[in-house]
Structure formats: C-alpha cells, structure tokens
Design brief:
The chain is α/β, with parallel strands linked by helices. It has a single domain, classed as Rossmann fold (3-Layer(aba) Sandwich), CATH 3.40.50.620. It is 41% helix and 23% strand. It is built from five helices and nine strands; from the N terminus they run βββαβββαβαβαβα. It has a five-stranded parallel beta sheet with strand order 7-4-1-8-9, sandwiched between helices. A two-stranded antiparallel sheet has the order 2-3. Strands 5-6 form a two-stranded antiparallel ribbon. A hairpin with a 2-residue loop joins β5 and β6. α3 packs across α4 and α4 runs parallel beside α5. The chain is globular and about 40 Å long.
C-alpha cells in the first residue's frame, strides 16, 4: 500500500476498555484493550512506516475518557509523533466519524485516507468516507479474534441495516 504525505491514516474509535499498565499509581497511561486497542496498534504501524498523519476519530466518553484522546495517547506511546496526530473529538457514530474527519482532512489539503477499523465494519466505514468526498480505502485491524456464527450473522445484519440507514448501501 503506497502512502504519500497527502494521505492520512484514520483510526475509528469504539468502546474504550483499558487496563493500567502498572507504571503509575493513578492508573495512567492506559493500555487500550479489545477492538480499539487492535485498531490503534494497526494504525500506529501504518503511520510509523508511511509518515502520514493519523486521525484518532471518536467523541464518545467511556469512563471519563474521550475516545480520540485515549487513542491519541496510545498512538504516541506506540511511536507516532504527536505533531502527526489529529484528534477528532466530535463524532458519536461512524457517519459522524466520516463527516467530521473529512472536514479536518480537507482543511489540511488531504482528500485520501486509509480507514482502520474491524474487518466486519470496513465496508460501511469506507462507503461513508467516500460519500463525504474522501478517496478511502480500508485496512482491517490486525489480530481480530474468531467469533461464533451467531455474532458474525448479527454483525453482518447490523452493518447491512446501518448501510441502508446511512444511505450508502
């Protein structure tokens, strides 16, 4: 996958599940767990090797932490320079991720992005970013665990209904 300085890596937020890494008494910095942890690790790898900016996109608050802030902190700890991290803190949905991130990218003269999220979420996320005028490609977060058939069917159905609801499917 070729990157240029005019391409961004966008990591989509989700439920912040975190565990203290044991270095500080106040339970920070936090190690992100689950899907968001996998997404951030993948985005950090892409950003470090490409030199592209990375947008941490998510405005939901989990246990007092805004998604974008928790992800940006984890990206920095993973070696992404803070000057290359943009925090998009307004979005409360995937549709919002696309809308607000597109605006932030356009202000920087960027119209191309690699969207990092879970494999089952990629089609809708990429479609929403494209609807906002971003030349988007998807990149599945690495290390996703295998899930049972019931969960796969539920995810598939949820994404199809959401694509219709969002007007991109």
């Amino acid at each position: 996958m070729g990157f240029s300085r005019q391409t961004a890596v966008v990591v989509l937020g989700g439920r912040i599940r975190a565990a203290a890494d044991g270095t500080r008494a106040d339970a920070s910095p936090l190690v992100l767990l689950g899907a968001v942890g996998r997404r951030v690790a993948t985005a950090a790898d892409l950003a470090r090797t490409s030199g592209a900016i990375v947008v941490a996109s998510g405005g939901c608050v989990w246990d007092g932490r805004v998604e974008a802030d928790a992800m940006a902190d984890a990206l920095e700890r993973a070696g992404v320079p803070s000057a290359r991290i943009v925090r998009e803190r307004c979005s409360l949905s995937t549709r919002d991720n696309a809308r607000y991130t597109a605006r932030a990218l356009f202000r920087r003269g960027i119209d191309e992005a690699t969207i990092v999220t879970c494999s089952w979420h990629l089609a809708r996320a990429v479609a929403l970013f494209r609807a906002e005028g971003i030349r988007a490609t998807g990149y599945a977060a690495e290390g996703e665990p295998q899930v049972g058939i019931a969960k796969r069917v539920w995810r598939w159905g949820r994404e199809r209904v959401s694509m219709r609801w969002d007007g991109v499917g």
